[in-house]
Amino acid sequence: MSRPRIAEDTGMTATDGFSARHTLTATAPFDFDASLRFVSRFSPTSGEQHIEDGVLTKALRAGGATVLVRVSATGSGGGVAVEMRCDGQLSAAVAAATLDRVGFYLSLDDDLTKFYSTAAGDAAFHPVTHRLRGYHQVKFSSPWENVAWAILAQRCPMAVAARAKAALTEACGHVAEWAGRTYGAFPDAAQLATCTPADLVSCLGNERKAAYLLGSAQRWLTLSEDELRHGPYEQVRERLLGLPGIGPWSSTFVLIRGLGRMEQAPPDKELLRAAARVYGIDIDAEGLARLATRYGPWQGYWAHYLRAGG
């Protein structure tokens, strides 16, 4: 099917862009190899990045620009080195926005000390934290991308959602090239908010999801990401529930995987199965809530570790 070009191609190549290298520190303990292992098997972004010799290469949108980033562990193991390339000169504003995006994507500032100390007293769960020690949650590249994925993945196989996501990225033309590979950056809400319903239906093949995506993109522009990251949990949840196509499960999904809000761990079938494997007992939603309570504000990390390593 011929797809519309939603916006002018803003692609770049590694040869004509300005390159910059910066170091981002991480709150110890931090294991970038654990981050890479998670990224390599995270289905919603499969094929969107490349991992080789301990270096993660991907394209993302930051500060209204498409930026190619190459991320690797620092020699000291205390953080990551980030190389950035952009079409034309990389402005200070875009560089700062990119570094913020990468640091948040890798959850570098998360202090897991109390989470690990609590897990030390949980005989069944402690082996999981031992295996994953130093793993900071890898989020979606942006919370908006997580919102879009939550809409695209509703009531359809993962492969179908992945094709729809790829179609949107291709149509928007935000691409970068490095070493013979092409990387696409998922479009900003601002870009999708200006699309016509017909544009989105052509990419998605689904009128309902196209309407949800367009409505959510337009409403997302009225929100502050900083307030979503740091505002009162229930207030943020209500903001997310106000987005078309985002219900209770999706709002929780975005709270954790897009915004790093780890205060709660509402049950779902996958989490219940993971908890049953780790604790060796049949667990219902009520039992899961009792287990999670001991982790207080780290319930989301407990749930994420159960899924990732349980």
What does this structure look like?
The structure is a single chain. Among the domains are: 12-111, 2-Layer Sandwich (TATA-Binding Protein); 269-309, no CATH class. Helix 8 packs across helix 9. It has helices at residues 32-40, 92-105, 113-119, 126-132, 143-152, 158-172, 189-192, 197-204, 207-220, 225-230, 233-241, 248-257, 269-279, 285-293, 299-309; strands at residues 12-13, 17-25, 49-52, 55-62, 65-73, 79-87, 175-178, 181-184. It contains 15 helices and 8 strands. A hairpin with a 2-residue loop joins strand 4 (55-62) and strand 5. Helix content is 46%, strand content 16%. The strands form 2 sheets. Strands 2-6-5-4-3 form a 5-stranded antiparallel sheet. The protein has a 3-stranded mixed sheet with strand order 1-7-8. The protein has 310 residues and is α+β, with helices and mostly antiparallel strands.
Quick overview of this protein structure:
By secondary structure, the protein is an alpha+beta fold. It has helices at residues 32-40, 92-105, 113-119, 126-132, 143-152, 158-172, 189-192, 197-204, 207-220, 225-230, 233-241, 248-257, 269-279, 285-293, 299-309, and strands at residues 12-13, 17-25, 49-52, 55-62, 65-73, 79-87, 175-178, 181-184. It is globular and about 55 Å long.
